[in-house]
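Work Package 4 report. The design task specified in the project plan requires that, given a folded chain encoded as structure tokens, an amino acid be chosen for each position. We show below one input record used in the internal validation round.
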């Protein structure tokens, strides 16, 4: 499916009437700095729609983007924000945790983004398990494959598969726009 329109709607720190307006939500989650905001930009083909940064912990609110006037892309803060204070980290985690697991809202799909070069970390596996326990619809995006050496590609993808269970994995590069069509087909 093609994206014909995409616009930023709102940043919220927690509960908000927007979550109840009936528009399906597709959430993007993953460790800090894996490229969640970049993946959203690559999907909508607008650089800078979602703010990105080399500094982990860039996204600190729940950001909603309206796609094709009919779906929200929800950009969330990452987990494992090494450079933030414990307090800031816990606050962000509480927000994400609430949205996924303690709010009355459900997501049509959750896009779990990992760094293909790093693979699924302990935090990623824990997140994946928790999402599965809550019966969430998940697709795993292995981002930054452009940085993966050709000779390491097969082995690294296999390692990711071994930890990903039955969930679909899409090799992806937000930078080179690899995997865009496949991910769009999965979520829209
Ligand atoms: P937080 O909001 O801080 O959790 O980060 P994020 O997951 O939203 O990451 P963001 O999109 O801000 O990108 C983090 C860094 O990774 C930036 O420097 C991006 O340019 C870079 N990056 C994102 N996607 C790719 C990719 O596919 N390939 C490469 N080489 N770099 C990427
Ligand atoms: Mg971000």
């Amino acid at each position: 499916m093609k994206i014909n329109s995409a616009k930023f709607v709102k940043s919220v720190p927690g509960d908000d009437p927007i979550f109840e307006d009936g528009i399906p939500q597709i959430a993007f989650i993953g460790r800090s700095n894996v490229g969640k905001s970049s993946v959203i930009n690559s999907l909508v083909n607008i650089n800078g729609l979602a703010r990105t940064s080399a500094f982990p912990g860039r996204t600190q609110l729940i950001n909603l983007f309206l796609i094709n006037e009919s779906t929200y892309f929800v950009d969330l803060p990452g987990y494992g924000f090494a450079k933030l204070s414990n307090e800031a980290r816990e606050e962000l985690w509480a927000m994400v945790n609430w949205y996924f697991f303690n709010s009355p809202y459900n997501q049509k799909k959750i896009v779990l983004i990992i760094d293909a070069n790093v693979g699924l970390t302990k935090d990623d596996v824990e997140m994946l398990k928790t999402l599965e326990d809550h019966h969430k619809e998940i697709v795993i995006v292995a981002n930054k494959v452009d940085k993966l050496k050709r000779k390491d590609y097969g082995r690294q993808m296999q390692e990711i598969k071994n930890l990903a269970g039955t969930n679909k994995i899409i090799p992806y590069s937000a930078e080179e726009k690899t995997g865009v069509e496949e991910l769009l087909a999965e979520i829209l």
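The beta strands are 6-12, 25-30, 62-67, 71-75, 109-115, 138-143, 168-171. Validation will be extended to a larger panel in the next phase.
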